Amino acid sequence: LYAWMRNARDNTPVKFDETSQCWKVYRYEDVHHVLTDWETFSNDMCRIVPEHHFTRGNLSTMDPPVHKQLRGVISQGFTPRTLAQLAPRIEELVKELLDEVGDRNEIDIARDLSYQLPLNVISELIGVPREDRGILQRTADAQLALTCENPADSDFVVQVQKAMEELQAYIKDLISVRRAAPRDDLISKLVTARVEDRALDEEEIVNFTVLLLLAGHLTTMSLLGNMMLTLSEHPDQLAEVRADRSLVPNAIEEVLRYRTPVPEGGRVTNRDVELGGTVIPANKMVLCSLISANRDEREFPSPDTFDIRRGSNPQLAFTTGIHYCLGAHLARLEAKIALNAVLDRYAQLNLTEIAWYQSHSLCNPKHLTFDVQRA
Ligand code: HEM
């Protein structure tokens, strides 16, 4: 895949893809340009892909000025300062999960930690009680079972639809509960929010909440799994991080670059536009390859080398511009706390087994089993 992308960057950096009927963009500079020029490259993808699962009320499919207003409603819940207050709670959640592993000398990081932690964190932020998290798991599992090979009408797709309907019905109930008695959680913020001088309707709140749940869970799960995997593949760098914890943030940025969780970011052209020497007509879907941009040799020296001591690392895993991932600081915080806790608890970590989800949209380990020795 990486060799194929290098070839695409060199020879067909902006290319129409017959299979997906989209324009694909591979170079860092072009991807960066598309993501920042929101006047030309719109997020209103619903207008050309009506069956797209992104829907009304969802930040990802909005343009200014509505996008800015809605983002403002909940962005204060995700600033570094607010998150610093959340850190002790995340530390507790990590400890709880590692305590469940107990004194076993084996841990499946993917199952025991990376799947659970982001689910628990985002559920608490949104206000989904612990006893109701089975519904979220069913939706996440159905999404993870979807692969490129699943035909559109397969059982897998039916399962996703069923799980999604169950989740939407559940969130509708939760909205009524919070309307009656708001609390200090994100659902209550959305219920009481005013955008363009009106309250959000039920469908918009449901759609936004589903986005937060899925975006907050599966992507961060991917980061946590990839982090433990990549560091264990580079034992010298793992040892360096263990000895000098100030390297943890660099290690996380480099994992995001080297194993980018979300492969692509989508936009639709508002007009005919020239990009990388090619003209893309108006109203066409554009897919920016974040994986390829993050391995572009024009931006990153020796891009296929994992190097936590990389000087500058403007990786695009969270994209850039006005749609820059709202949960980026939260995901980094979870990864930092989880990595420190694992290193504190285990003096030895030897990877013994790995299995991948065959998911169509994420690069995600399903099992990452380590033989461990407690510190
Ligand atoms: C948007 C990646 C974690 C919430 C996005 C986008 C990407 C992304 C690629 C699309 C941005 C664009 O269209 O330009 C990731 C990765 C994560 C992560 C790699 C973890 C490692 C989270 C978390 C949340 C979250 C924990 C929790 C709330 C969102 C939201 C958007 C978004 C609300 C839409 C932002 C907008 O359109 O203004 N993320 N994300 N993400 N992400 Fe994340």
TrEMBL record:
Q: Does the keyword NADP apply?
A: no
Q: Which Gene3D superfamilies match?
A: Cytochrome P450 (1.10.630.10)
Q: Which GO terms describe its biological process?
A: cholesterol catabolic process
Which keywords are on file for this protein? Heme, Iron, Metal-binding, Monooxygenase, Oxidoreductase
Q: Annotated Gene Ontology MF terms? A: cholest-4-en-3-one 26-monooxygenase activity; heme binding; iron ion binding; steroid hydroxylase activity
Q: Which CDD domains match?
A: P450_EryK-like
Top-level division of the source organism's lineage: Bacteria
InterPro entries (alphabetical):
Cyt_P450, Cyt_P450_B, Cyt_P450_sf
Q: Report whether Metal-binding shows up as a keyword of the record.
A: yes
Q: Which family does it belong to?
A: Belongs to the cytochrome P450 family.
Its recorded name reads: Cytochrome
Organism annotation: Streptomyces oceani
